[in-house]
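ok, trying the design again with the full structure, not the truncated one.
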């Protein structure tokens, strides 16, 4: 089973921050990091899960209504009087580039199924190629249309199609969106393993996010493997490696 850090080490540290990514990058044996991108009013790519900043920062409103300079003034509480900012994707790539050139993976989820950020695909592909790290990047989205655009821009890249159920992932993939991998919710494995054999099946989990208290419950990894899951995106990867 390949283990990924979902939004960085997001159980112990605030999700999608440089702090959470730095901690993940230290874990020996970790396959890679998953993160989410949105776009600001002045067209900068930033790393943030929600379309709004309300849940994770001290601000309110939609990411698309903020300029990057305005967004950078918002604070993410990291405990002990410490604060993080919403990072740009450039800052994250600066942090991970060296490791990625060495094979460490980055799954960039384009959060564009609710807000159709025009030009997002071109921007992220250009940034990745400028650093020559395209061999270590997997793009994903719930939007099949966005994945189709990615595939047209990069014929070689790895693409994971997101959906709740693995059957919906498979049928979206077969529908020609250009994806080569299935990224379902872990409870949505509604096909027998032989029907998904041969595809990377990277399952995402809910679980506790900082600063919620962890329960200490551990997943039965072998049972997940038997369902055909090849990779897991976990908030607490450090507990499995
Ligand atoms: O990319 C897998 C997973 O992160 C998708 O769900 O809501 O955590 O972005 P979400
Ligand atoms: Ca995600």
């Amino acid at each position: 089973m390949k283990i990924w850090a979902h939004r960085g080490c997001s159980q112990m540290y605030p999700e999608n921050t440089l702090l959470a990514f730095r901690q993940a990058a230290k874990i020996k044996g970790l396959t890679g990091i998953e993160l989410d991108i949105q776009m600001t009013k002045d067209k900068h790519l930033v790393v943030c899960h929600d379309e709004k900043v309300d849940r994770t920062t001290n601000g309110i409103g939609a990411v698309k209504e903020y300029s990057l300079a305005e967004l950078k003034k918002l604070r993410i509480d990291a405990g002990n009087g410490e604060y993080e900012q919403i990072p740009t994707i450039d800052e994250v790539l600066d942090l991970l580039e060296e490791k990625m050139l060495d094979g460490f993976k980055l799954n960039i989820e384009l959060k564009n199924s609710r807000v159709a950020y025009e030009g997002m695909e071109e921007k992220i592909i250009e940034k990745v190629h400028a650093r020559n790290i395209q061999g270590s990047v997997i793009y994903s989205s719930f939007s099949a249309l966005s994945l189709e655009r990615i595939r047209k821009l990069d014929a070689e890249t790895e693409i994971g199609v997101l959906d709740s159920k693995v059957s919906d992932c498979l049928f979206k993939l077969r529908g020609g969106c250009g994806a080569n991998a299935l990224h379902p919710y872990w409870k949505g494995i509604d096909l027998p393993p032989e029907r998904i054999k041969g595809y990377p099946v990277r399952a995402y989990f809910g679980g506790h996010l900082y600063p919620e208290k962890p329960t200490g419950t551990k997943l039965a990894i072998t049972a997940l493997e038997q369902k055909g899951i090849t990779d897991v995106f976990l908030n607490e990867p450090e507990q499995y490696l």
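Keeping the full-length input from now on. Residues 89-101 form the longest helix (13 residues).
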